[in-house]
Amino acid sequence: MLKKRVIPLILLSDDNIVKGKQFKNHVSTGNPRTAVKVYVSQHCDEVMFIDIKATINSKKALLSIIKETSINCNVPFTVGGGVKNLEDIRQLLLSGADKVLITTEAAKDFKFISDASNKFGKQCIVIGIDYKKNNDNFEVLIKNGNIKTSLNLFDYALQVEKYGAGEILLNCINNDGMMTGYDLNTIDKISSMINIPLIACGGAGNFKHIEDLFIKTSASAAACASIFNFGDNNPFRLRSYLKNAGIDVRTVK
Fold first, then answer.
1. Residue 47: which pLDDT band, with cuts at 50, 70 and 90?
2. Per-residue pLDDT reduced to its tens digit, 190-200
3. What is the distance between the terminal CA atoms of the chain, rounded to a whole angstrom?
4. Could you give the CA distance from residue 144 to residue 73 in angstroms, rounded to a whole number?
5. What local confidence, expressed as pLDDT, does residue 147 receive?
6. Are 166 and 145 in contact (CB under 8 A)?
7. Of 68, 72, 79, nearest in space to 7 by CA
8. pLDDT tens digits, one per residue of 8-26
9. Of 59, 66, 95, 185, which residue is least crowded by CB atoms under 10 Å?
10. Which residues contact 101 (CB under 8 A, 6 or more apart)?
C-alpha cells in the first residue's frame, strides 16, 4: 500500500503566494521561493504550484519561479495553471516540474488528457477537478471556478481515469479556504470508484481534519494551503501527528 502524502499547495498570482476563500478574495501571503525552501526543509512529500492568474505575463513569471525553486526542491514538484496544449506541458517539465496539473482544458477536451499522457507519460499528468455542491447537485467548474460545465462529477472522474490521468486533484470549492474540514463523503465515493491516486483539496484547518481524511476515505494525499499559511503548523509536525495516529506516512531519517 502506498504511503499517505502531505502536499503543500501554493497558489500563485504573478510573483506572489496568495490565499482566498471559495476561490475569491485572494490576499498575498508570501514569497514562493522562500515557501518551497521551508516546506522542503520540513519534509513535505511533494510541492504543488497553481498559477491562478494564468496570463501570458504570469506564465513567464511561473516558468522563472519554477526554474529558480526546482534547484532546491528534492521532492516531486507539480505545477499547473493555464495549461492549454502539449507545448505548455513541455515548457513546464523542462523548467523543472515533475508533474503538470491540467484542469480547464481537460474538461473541454478529453482527448487532450490522452494526448498528454501518451506524450509525457501518465505519471506526469495530474487532472484537477474543481466542484461545487448545491444541495444534491455536484457542479464541475472550470476557469478557476468561474464557469459551470454540464459534466457529472462522478462520471467525469471515471472518464479522466479512462483517458490516461495519472492522478486526480479533487477540490471542493465550498470548502476552499474555510478550514472546516474536507468534503469526506464525496472524496470517499470518488476515491473508491477510481484506481488512480486521489489528492484531496479544500478545507483542512487542523491536523484532525487530515487524520479523518485518511481514516475515512481512500484518498492518497492531502493538499493543504491555509493550514500552513496561517498559524504555526507545518508538514513536519503534521507527519508526526499522522504517524502517532497510526497512519502510514513516509519515514524521515
1. very high
2. 999 999 999 99
3. 20
4. 26
5. 94
6. no
7. 79
8. 999 988 778 888 888 877 7
9. 185
10. 48, 50, 78, 79, 80, 81, 83, 126, 127, 128, 169
User: Is the model's pLDDT at 106 over the cut of 90?
Assistant: yes
The 10s digit of each residue's pLDDT in 193-227 is: 999 999 999 999 999 999 999 999 999 999 998 89
Q: Please tell me whether the overall predicted TM-score, pTM, comes out greater than 0.90 for this model.
A: yes
Query: At what angle are helices 235-244 and 207-216 packed, to 10 degrees?
Result: 50
8 near 44, Cβ under 8 Å?
A: yes
What would you report as the CA-atom Rg of the chain, rounded to the nearest whole angstrom?
17
Measured in whole angstroms, the distance separating CA 81 from the mean position of its chain's CA atoms is 11
CA atoms within 13 A on the CB side of 72: 13
Residue with cell 487532472: 127
Q: How far apart are alpha carbons 15 and 49 in whole angstroms?
A: 12
Sign of CA dihedral 232, 237, 241, 246: positive
The x, y and z cell numbers of residue 45, run together, are 512529500
Q: What sign does the dihedral 108-19-24-157 (CA atoms) show?
A: positive
pLDDT for 55 equals 62
At residue 115's C-alpha, the angle toward residues 113 and 119, to 5°, is 120
Nearest to 242 by CA among 228, 221, 230: 221
